[in-house]
Amino acid sequence: MRILHPGVDRTELEQELRDAFDADPDIVTVVARQARDLSESDQFVTDFGAELTVEDVVDNLADAPDDYQLAERWNWWLGALDLSHGGYARFSVRQDIDKTS
Questions:
Q1: Reduced to 3 states, what is the DSSP secondary structure of residue 68?
Q2: Among 50, 70, 52, which residue's Cα sits nearest to residue 61?
Q3: What is the pLDDT of residues 48-91, one digit of tens each?
Q4: Can you say how many angstroms the Cα of residue 61 is from the centroid of all Cα atoms in its chain?
Q5: Would you say which domain of life the source belongs to (predicted)?
Q6: Among 18, 22, 32, 75, which has the minimal tally of Cβ within 10 Å of its Cβ?
Q7: Which residues have CB under 8 Å from 32's CB, separation 6+?
Q8: Euclidean distance between the first and the last CA atom of the chain, given in angstroms as a whole number
């Protein structure tokens, strides 16, 4: 039986990411969408025994190296999760796409 949960509130997360990291609005949207997808996948709750929260995301991204931009911070955290538990790489953000094309 699957337990339904509200998941990460994308609007709240977008605001927190903008405030914490002064990031490009397009990147904020993408990272928030990936966080919501991660939350809805139940992988985080299965691995850690708790729902993914906005605070979890912001706190973990804040631990990334200071010179990392938001997408790099997200991918850095997911890389650590993938190394420790596996299966998180699918939520990473591609940074090789030119937004102008």
A1: coil
A2: 70
A3: 999 999 999 999 999 999 999 999 999 999 999 999 999 999 99
A4: 8
A5: Archaea
A6: 22
A7: 8, 10, 13, 14, 17
A8: 44
Q: Which two tokens stand for residue 2?
A: 């699957």
Task: Tell me the pLDDT tens digit for each residue of 3-29.
Answer: 434 567 889 999 999 999 999 999 999
Query: Rounded to the nearest 5°, which phi and psi values hold at 99?
Result: -65, -20
CA 89 – CA 101 distance, rounded (Å)? 25
Q: How many C-beta atoms lie closer than 10 Å to residue 39's C-beta?
A: 25
> What are the backbone angles phi and psi of residue 19, rounded to the nearest 5°?
-65, -40
